[in-house]
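Recap quiz, item 2
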Amino acid sequence: MSAITDERRPDDASVPDDATPPGGRQGRDALRQMGSPHRARNVKDVIARVVMWFCFFLAMIPLVWILWTVISKGAHLLGSMEWWTGNQRNINSDDAGGGARHAIEGTLQMVGMTALIAVPIGIFTAVYLVEYGRGKLARAISFTVDILSGVPSIVAALFIYAVWVTTFGLSRSGFAAALALVLLMIPVVVRSTEEMLKLVPNELREAAYALGVPKWVTVVKVVLRTAFSGIITGVLLGIARVMGETAPLLILAPYTKNFQRDLFNGNFPTLPMMINQDRGDFALATAAERMWAAALTLIILVLLLNIIGRVIAYFGSVKK
Amino acid sequence: MSSVTGVSATDELPGPDGRPPLSGDAASTGRVGDRIFGGAATLSGVVVIVLVSLIAVFLIVQAIPALADNSANFFTSREWAPGGDNPRFGILEFLWTTVTASTLAMLISVPVGVGVALFITQYAPAWMRRPAAALVDLLAAVPSIVYGLWGLITFSPFFKPVQGFMEDKLGWFPLFAPTGISGGTIFFIGIVLAIMVLPIVTALSREVFDQTPLAHKEGALALGATKWEMIRTAVLPFGRPGVISASMLALGRALGETIAVTFLVSALADGSPWTWSLFNGGETFASKIANNAAEFSNPSKTGAYIAAGLVLFVLTFVVNSIARVVIERRKAFTE
């Protein structure tokens, strides 16, 4: 179809100048007069094409630049065994070496706790929105999920601070930071789960009902099971999103250079805070390389989650 | 974009017998299990509402005493001296820096982001589309603290001569007047924010551009439109609400971005003169709060920061609500 369109286009280069155009001789003269605006149209078309390609490569510049910076400056530390087994105890900014195990474990533990709280709330909320909710309450919930997804991480942190520290008089801890991360993770889990539940064909639900299966069993054994891989993907992407958050940690979970497994008492080590710690002395080569290595480690963790999530989504997606 | 509300029009259509479909509440039989499970689902939803309301309530309640003690005007003062016997603090500087840097970020990231989305959906060869989209998504996967490091250490030295050049040639214009600050200027922060929110603009725009009805596109081409004319007359008008709401979501993200900005800003000395220049420093709401996390020592000081956080919350609330309304209106047309 597009071939026909092209042939009839008067400014098409493939129409020889002396050929009689569809409109006859008069038509061709008319087309000649129109020649210059058509050239302008073509020029615009080419410019637009060039601009779009340019935009794409423009967007790729920072990506390549950032990844190159982090890899070239941080990769060599990741090759050492010490990085994966040691901590930063008694290592000053101008000392080389030390490991990031404490921070890696801390980050994983903290996001694990976050997921433990956020995932059930998120999935149940999505189940409500798709399977149960109608009318005003559903709209209100859907609206607040949107608002929650727009809440800046620093505001979430301030809120938890206002509740946890100011109101209840508890001390700052890894758990308090995890609570702030819960606020940031819930909307991601709700939205992705919702998407997946909507993809589950209604026929499956109806088939279950027709067999006399109670609604909640239908939801658990048919709907959630069908959407399972998609939900896992959403959860992993949600974890990836909160893993790199720093603002809540800054306010709620002071850093420690030691191993620390207790989320509820004392300072807590995390990768973003380790980066932040060494950032203070980035003029020192020793601190700078640790900082970049920690950044690279964080990126690798986030990317791993993203990739695993996408692989699961690819192989386990609901077949339409 | 039926994803946005969780309630689609088709859900509410009656079944063939005129009764609501089984997927509604009618399917609940009143069994104990049903009641518990349905109750848990409802409860979770209500928890989300309560959480968001609590955020507002707690911030307001804890900000009020500090605001009552404040002897400067909260909205028009540029001082920031909370705590002490005579606390004086205002948010004008943060408001200016936050809004200007975010606006600048939008001015850069929306055209480029839409361009990238058009490239991916309309121009890229078929084999390139998925990898290109994945690469842009990769930009979103980079944690913001890494953007902060990169901006601070790698990008900022590179940007200094650019700023010097602009101050030289455009310095007569108040927005580009030299202030003696280089590195963490509003302009620079705007650029880094633009890079950070670009994937948000692109991802959502890509989604709506992809949904442009084929008939619209082929119709335009059949009338002899060039590819660009087809995009201008079919793809862009169809995608406009999506682009607007994507921009709003990105703006919300830019307003609240904390750690990267905290790394980059150059705080202004107390009492430095007011200037319209984009090459001035100045803290944003988020960076001011994050930079002073250690200062949350007494309630009145903390209250001042919480008040600043409240303003930021309101700003992002408004922006996100606008995005939401635009999406809703679009739904009304497409469903």
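Residues 24-78 of chain A form the longest helix (55 residues).
The CA atoms of residues 121 and 186 of chain A lie 7 Å apart.
End of item.
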